[in-house]
TrEMBL record:
Signal peptide coordinates: none
UniProt keywords, alphabetically: Oxidoreductase
Gene Ontology annotations for the cellular component aspect, listed alphabetically: cytoplasm
Superkingdom of source: Bacteria
InterPro entries to which the protein is assigned, alphabetical: FAD-dep_OxRdtase (IPR006076), FAD/NAD-bd_sf (IPR036188)
The protein's name in its UniProt record: Gamma-glutamylputrescine oxidoreductase
FAD dependent oxidoreductase domain: residues covered: 31-381
Species name: Pseudomonas fluorescens
Pfam families associated with the record: DAO
GO molecular function per UniProt: oxidoreductase activity
């Protein structure tokens, strides 16, 4: 079977050294088979192992190969649709539960990093940057909303104050969330995988799940082996393909693009982001950026619907970077890559169970770093018979994309064009 390497990226080039893991070559019996060694799968595996389950993880390529190892590396609280939208959709009782969980993912990441001594350049502090008075108004109401759910590490920033933390004159103000922050995402995944193995879990790489035999004791087939389990957790997200047909119609893989500069040096880096916070703007099609551990600027943005790889990523993203930081016009770009995330029509995660023993979580819609860590805990709770928090997610309504799989990409792109136009016009 072909050996799938990591796609070229700054993260792959600077990953902590880990020997490749073997492919599954025989038949295995386990309590839980987890499909996918990204954050959702690894977080689930860790919580289950800590609670005495025997866990086997199957990964089609390498640990963190998908969005978990290619994302912007930002710890951003809440969901892609905020708690007020959830409240209007499902009512106050379910929203209360989801609101209480909205800030848990970041805490889980920090707890994992501390407990398992994961080297992933963890830094505290994330900035939401407003480009218009309307966006600033939204941040003011967001602060009130989050504080209602007990989240208090927030500071509103006027134009003068935001200039102290970001050397960019595009912003009229912003909000600082000190429980936000940033990490080297692939190194976080690799550290979590090592933690899984330290607790007796097994991870097979280059072992795609090609078929699930459903039943009282489900079996997951790979090209050269199979895993018989009491429970299955499906955590393939945007890289799941058509393994579980019921999940494909209600979600769509999308690509986001990231570039990384050459090392800027301590002095220049400090003038751009003096406190080393990460930043995202408040546009619908947002830009996001931060410094790496070795003082490069990592800058991402743009969405390609249907997850095609654009021909020239640097041509798409570099102009956005220079608009924010014209002082980088002579700086070389060392890396440019794309990675897929999974979008749902509601932009809320899809969580559920198929039959009695197949559980899934997917569709983070761009808020995956924190949500996936929470999802692992919630899935593990459900397998232990504590389903209240799982049910709060599972009861969220989800709809297929209009026109089915053939038309979902043009419809979504049309929606993005509309919101992009609104961003440009400042409405």
């Amino acid at each position: 079977m072909a050996n799938t390497p990591y796609p070229e990226s700054y993260y792959a080039a600077s990953a902590n050294a880990v020997p490749p893991r073997p492919a599954l070559q025989d038949d295995v019996d386990t309590d839980v088979c987890v499909i996918g060694a990204g954050y959702t799968g690894l977080s689930s595996a860790l919580f289950l192992l800590e609670n005495g389950f025997k866990v086997t993880v199957l990964e089609a390529a390498r640990v963190g190969f998908g969005a978990s190892g290619r994302n912007g590396g930002q710890i951003v609280n809440s969901y892609s649709r905020d708690i007020d939208v959830i409240e209007r959709t499902v009512g106050p009782k379910q929203a209360q539960l989801l609101g209480q969980m909205a800030f848990e993912g970041g805490r889980i990441i920090r707890e994992r990093v501390a407990r398992y001594n994961i080297q992933c350049d963890l830094k505290d502090g994330g900035v939401f940057a407003a480009m218009t008075a309307r966006q600033m108004g939204h941040l003011e109401s967001q602060k009130r909303l989050w504080e209602r759910f007990g989240h208090t590490q927030l500071e509103l920033m006027d134009q003068r104050r935001i200039r102290e933390v970001v050397a960019c004159d595009q912003y009229v103000g912003g909000m600082l969330d000190m429980s936000g922050g940033h990490i080297h995402p692939l190194n976080l995944a690799l550290g979590e995988a090592a933690a899984v193995e330290s607790l007796g879990g097994t991870i097979y790489e280059q072992s795609p799940a090609v078929r699930i035999e459903r039943g009282a004791t489900p079996v997951v087939h790979t090209p050269q082996g199979k895993v018989r389990a009491r429970f299955i957790i499906v955590a393939g997200n945007a890289y799941l393909g058509n393994l579980v047909p019921e999940l494909a119609a209600k979600s769509m893989p999308c690509g986001t693009q990231v570039i990384t500069t050459e090392p800027l040096g301590e002095e220049l880096a400090k003038t751009l982001l003096p406190q080393d916070y990460c930043v995202e703007d408040c546009n619908y099609l947002l830009d996001y950026y931060r410094l790496s551990g070795d003082k490069r600027l990592i800058f991402g943005g743009g969405v390609v619907y249907g997850a095609r790889d654009p021909a020239n990523i640097e041509a798409i993203i570099r102009p956005k970077m220079l608009k924010a930081f014209p002082q980088l016009k002579d700086v070389k770009i060392d890396y440019a890559w794309t990675g897929n995330f999974l979008l749902t029509l509601s932009r809320l995660p899809q969580v559920g169970r198929l039959g009695d023993n197949i559980y899934y979580s997917q569709g983070c819609s761009g808020h995956g770093v924190t949500y996936t860590h929470l999802a692992g805990k919630v899935l593990a709770e459900a397998l232990r018979g504590q389903a209240e928090r799982f049910d709060a997610f599972a009861d969220l309504p989800h709809y297929p994309f209009p026109g089915g799989q053939m038309l979902r990409t043009p419809f979504a792109a049309l929606g993005a064009w509309y919101y992009g136009l609104r961003d440009k016009l400042g409405v």
